[in-house]
Amino acid sequence: MCEQHLHDDERDARPSGPVAFVDELVVALTNARIYSDEHPRVNSAVEVLHEGLQHLLRESDRGRVQIGASDGFIFYAGQPLLGASLSAQRLLQTLEELGSGGLSFESTTTQEDLSSLVRFVSREAKRVDRFDVANSALDKQGCRSVRLLPPYQEASGSWTDKIESEWVEDFESETLQTALDLDLDMELPARIYQDVVGALQDAMVQSCSGKNLDTAPAAGYVESILTQLTHDTTSMMRLSRYEKYDAFTFGHSIRVCFIALNFARHLTKDERLLERIGMAALMHDIGKAWVPFEVLHSTERLSDAERAEMNMHPVHGGQILLDSNNPDPLAVSVAFSHHQNQDGGGYPQSIRLARPSAATMIVKIADVYEALTAVRPYKPKMAPARAYRIMMDMQGFFEPSLLRRFIEVNGVYPVGSRVKLSTGEVGRVIQLTDSPLEPIVSTDQAESGEGLFYEDVQDLDLRERFGKNRIKVDKVLLDAEM
Amino acid sequence: MSEAIASEAGPGTAPEFRLAECWADFTKAIAIYPDSNERVRAKLREMLALLAAALQEAKAERSLDPERGISILFREDVVVLPSESHDLPPSSALAWLRTRLDHAGLAGVELLPEVTEESVIGFSRQLLANYLRKEPGVSARDLWPEVHEGVVLIDRRFDGTFGGVGGTGTFAGGSGMATAGTDTRHFINSLLAHPKVSKRLARIQAHTLDQIAEGETTGRASDMLKTIVDELPADAMHSRDALISAVCDVMEGIEGRVGGAAANHPASADNERFINLMHQVSRQHFARQGPELERLKTAGVVQTPAGGRARDADIDDDVEQLLEEVNRLPATLGVRLADDAADAAAEQLTVLMHYLVNLERPSELRGLYPLLNRVLESPGPGEFAVLRRYLEGEAESEAVRMHRRAAVIEFLVRAGQPYLLRACGALTPEYVLESFPKGFGLYLETIDMDSPRDAEELDDVCRKIGDERLLEAGPALQGDLAKLTSRQSSALFNRPNRDRLALISLLLAHHPESRVIEAATFLRALDLPEEENFLLFHFNEFSLMTEAYLRGLIDLHFKRCTREDLYGAVSEVLCRHILAMRQRNPQDRARLDSIRHLARFPSARGWHLLQEIAKAGFGPFGGKEPASVRRLARTVSRDYKAA
């Protein structure tokens, strides 16, 4: 049983819009990779996808919905959907291999059409190498309402043929490249993020399918994360603030990996050890692949039996990793121990050491911090300062000196946070300083709420005096992370 | 706390700076010499004299409160004194001292007038001891278990990103340290540093007519706070959070009253009316808030309730409060992952062992055995402790315990690492004695017979088991003894000892051919008193010995057989010798002796050989006996007959 499925009860509360639609498409594709065509999980995911499409169609006045794909990003209505792109690596990869620039859904699209698309992209696409051949294949399956779009040509700013292309038209005066250039710093981190999601999806599919886990691809990406963290902490940690809840918890695992690595690299310079910790953080929840999805996504209070089932995920995690190729005892240990507390509490029940290893404690701290600061179906996101205070109040959970170090390293206003200043300006924390409440903030929004022109964006070191006054951080903007 | 003031004059002029230097010199001296050393004593006297001078100067020039002392703080590379600050000269004694303070979680100390030689020595000894501590995450309470009279500890400022000069992070002087809750002055200092408190103080001061002169702020504010704190119930000093909250409330009340009164009757911060007002508001507040204060007081010590985080709702994102709380966490003492390697290996072993003992078919988990082997490649104390817990630790039932134990033993034996069982202290002599014969085979496998200590232990175990029990356990031990490698078996013969005699008998039974020479050597070294022992000294060729003779010899020693039972075995060895020597030197003296001895140990085999020798003359093909030997054989035959 896997976690890749949204519980039926969640549907009413499910977010709608293009990002949600892309997310649902990713869920459906992943389920199709795990299960047979007739499996209820596959059908239910397609049903949800269809609902999302209908919602988008109702909002659109064009009678069709087009999702663009270019340069590793998903676009909708002329805007790159960074959040959706992060988890859509496999979809983007498939479209790129087919030379396609996106997907077009007509208003007549049925559930069967979407089933055909999902089946095709998840399994059959490997056998063709061009989008027009893919369209022919879809035709043969009776799917005529969904089309793979031709690729977008940067030079001309148009499609290679005459197919109508609303998502590009929406750019108006801007080109696709301009849209991407707006946040060029994010491109490489986002690509790394996508790669890691792809690797995690593969890992989850392998685990669910009863195959031995191949950790090598993910390990390679951890190396990239580490390198990127070293060279551009800000961009990387910005992604760690991307707290959209995803049905897979891939996002959670990746963010825990970012946070843990960023912390650990302040404690050691041993790159091999850091890579191992990163990998352990990335895989710490892999055991959830074996938890029944009804339990994993239950919106009700769990019964004792369900709780026991849920609490088995650390044991499952260690087991999956032990059965992987080239298992690392550190990753096994972290997956197994990350819910055990220093005071003997937590789970699973086992013989314990007096002191957990630092690697386990680092991942545990990152895990709890991420969970507190990220949005969940059952709770809103939380300011880092409050999360720290709650963590400090969790007696017996953490090694106090290590928690203190974590707060020091991560900062009261973590790098990547969007903050409102006492001047009314809004900006992003780009660097911590020796004064905990006075980071360096890159302002990009005026007091009036207007976005600043690029040349007006400035980095303010809040330790400095500006005239007679100090500029302070007024608050962290929790709803404006991305 | 005093603000760092850039010094115009060079270092070494003010008594405060010389005091700091002298303190550093003294600490260096006491790090090298005993307390009684004259160099130590001289520096100590000088230090206390400089403290007296500095206090005198501070009183004269800055109207220092007579109860207050001289604070010496280190921030980054600056030493901060009440009236001035100086860059730390690199490689100086002060820099050396700063390192040690930093390691002990201190930014510095305040030396009070009542400080004594003993308390300075006590503090310094503890400081140096703390510097030697390697374990990370030691709590402040463990670092500073005792109060040293007249020495007020001042926490290191929240270091790393929180540590800079001029930041808005709180400076929690001594909060949570050994003196927490017991030293009013210290407590007031930390209150003064709290942003909420300082803001309210500033507002109160703004309402008073006499704007307090620059440089006196701290002293006046301290007085104001003391007025409030004096009204606190004495036992309420245990919860700092609660007190800060309560003090803030009182100050709010004072602010309201002062603000209201100011318009009609301007108050002065030190006039009697103002002080009375503060006392009155404080008293009223604490009287009214008694039960609430009690609740707050206990809130600081109540642990998280089990199973719920309902209290999270009461926790907000107040960053100043956050900094205050962070400051109370123990110093990080340079947490490094490299220091953690031992813990990590032990934890990994704990987890891997969990799978080993809990899975039905652990061998099917393809990474488990290789990882266990890897982790156990070079085990340390941590790993031994884990093994011990899995082997001997308590479990929910005896059956579980035994299953766990068996699984671990089986793995270690299969992995070729049974010696770890003994190395981790699991196969103790007591356990072997208690479980005999069950654990004895494993015990033999795991002892290092090259180690005199292990050999002695084995002899002791054998003695305690007793020869009789050992010999009787022969059949039960058969399988275990068969598992011993050739080297292990040989090692058991290497240190002849009477206590091991029964064990040798068992080993001989299981390895009759290969162990004869070693057993004969062993027995000869023991020089048993039995007459039949003579053969071991009769000739050097132990290859002629038989297992029957050697075991018979031991049995005879243990009185498990009679001399007559041994006739055949002795006669057989003699016959072998006689025949073996026929080709090499038929008239060899030892051979002739062997022929003579045959008469003492009658057997059919011996009689036939004597007859053969007596009749065997020289022939064309050689191999026959010389006449003298034939004569001897005839003589012995006659004696034999007579016997």
Task: Identify the CATH architecture of the largest domain in chain A.
Answer: Orthogonal Bundle
Record field, number of beta strands of chain B: 5
Work out the strand percent of chain B. Answer: under 5%
What share of the residues of chain B lie within helices? 55-70%
Overall residue-averaged pLDDT value of chain B: 75
Look at the helices and sheets of chain A and give the structural class.
alpha+beta
**Strands ordered across the widest β-sheet of chain A:** 3-2-1-4-5
User: What characterizes the major β-sheet of chain B?
Assistant: 5 strands, antiparallel
Rg from alpha-carbon coordinates of chain A:
23 Å
Q: What general form of chain A does the structure show?
A: globular
Number of strands of chain A: 14
The chain-level structural class of chain B is: mainly alpha
CATH class of the largest domain in chain A: Mainly Alpha
Spatial separation of the terminal alpha carbons of chain B:
113 Å
Helix coverage percent of chain A: 40-55%
Mean of pLDDT of chain A: 81
Major β-sheet of chain A, in short? 5 strands, antiparallel
Shape of chain B: elongated
Regions of chain A with pLDDT < 50 over 5+ consecutive residues? 1-13, 157-164, 170-182
Oligomer: heterodimer
Folded structure, characterized:
The complex is a heterodimer of chains A (482) and B (643). The model of chain A is unreliable at 1-13, 157-164 and 170-182 (pLDDT under 50). Chain A has three domains: 8-182, no CATH class; 186-410, Hypothetical protein af1432, CATH 1.10.3210.10; 418-480, no CATH class. In chain A, the strands form four sheets. Chain A has a five-stranded antiparallel sheet. In chain A, strands 11-10-9-8-14 form a five-stranded antiparallel sheet, with no helix packed on it. The radius of gyration of chain A is 23 Å and the shape is globular. Chain A is 47% helix and 11% strand. Chain A has helices spanning 18-34, 40-59, 82-86, 89-97, 111-124, 131-140, 166-169, 176-181, 187-208, 216-231, 233-240, 250-264, 271-282, 293-296, 304-310, 313-322, 329-337, 358-373, 384-393, 400-410; strands at 64-70, 73-76, 79-80, 102-106, 146-149, 152-153, 158-159, 418-421, 426-431, 440-445, 458-461, 465-466, 469-470, 473-476. Chain B has 643 residues and is mostly helical. Among the domains of chain B are: 1-156, no CATH class; 179-300 and 318-332, no CATH class; 567-643, no CATH class. In chain B, 59% of the residues lie in helices and 4% in strands. Chain B has 31 helices and five strands. Chain B has helices at 15-32, 38-62, 93-103, 117-132, 140-143, 184-193, 195-207, 217-230, 240-262, 272-288, 290-299, 319-328, 341-358, 368-375, 381-392, 398-414, 419-423, 429-435, 440-446, 452-465, 467-472, 474-483, 486-493, 501-510, 516-526, 535-538, 547-557, 563-584, 589-597, 604-615, 627-642, and strands at residues 70-75, 78-80, 85-87, 106-111, 151-155. Chain B has a five-stranded antiparallel sheet. In chain B, α13 packs antiparallel against α14 (368-375), α24 (501-510) runs antiparallel to α27 and α27 (547-557) runs antiparallel to α28 (563-584). The relative contact order of chain B is 0.04. Mean pLDDT of chain B is 75; it is low at 1-12, 157-183, 209-218, 234-239, 260-269 and 288-308. At the A-B interface, α16, α17, α18, α19 and α20 of A face α12, α13, α14 and α15 of B.
